[in-house]
Design a protein that fits this description.
The protein is mainly beta and 130 residues long. It is 0% helix and 62% strand. The two termini are 16 Å apart.
Length: 130
């Protein structure tokens, strides 16, 4: 598991390789990653945007930006969390992801929450995270 905490918002990510959705002979590898966003602060926050940087084993980067996550812009109350699972395809047997969420507090304050860098590894791949 990988974790980052920004302004009392904890983001925990757990990636896992999905061999049944991958075809290494065709350079197709697929991972699922589960994310838990926990509000440890005193006020509700709403997740408005996401920004991912996905880097494969060749160093090729892809940026993904958009509203919310998995079609939602959840409000996370103090002491509560929001969890979701998504996926990432790569053409290499490894890589990593890192990113940020844009949150807004109930008083309209917009701020960025770090998503920790995490490694995408196949079972045979040596873990490398720079």
């Amino acid at each position: 598991m990988y974790q980052a905490v920004t302004r009392m918002i904890s983001v925990t990510v757990e990636p896992r390789y999905l061999p049944d959705r991958s075809e290494p002979s065709n350079n197709q590898y697929f991972w699922a990653y589960s994310v838990e966003i926990e509000n440890r602060g005193p006020k509700p926050v709403q997740l408005k945007r996401r920004h991912w940087i996905i880097t494969d084993a060749r160093g090729h980067k892809q940026e993904v930006k958009g509203a919310g996550v998995v079609g939602e812009e959840p409000i996370i109350n103090p002491g509560e969390s929001f969890s979701y699972t998504s996926g990432c395809p790569l053409e290499t047997p490894g890589g990593f992801m890192v990113g940020a969420y844009t949150m807004i507090s109930e008083d309209g304050d917009s701020f960025t929450v770090d998503i920790p860098a995490f490694s995408l590894d196949t079972p045979a791949q040596r873990r490398i995270l720079n």
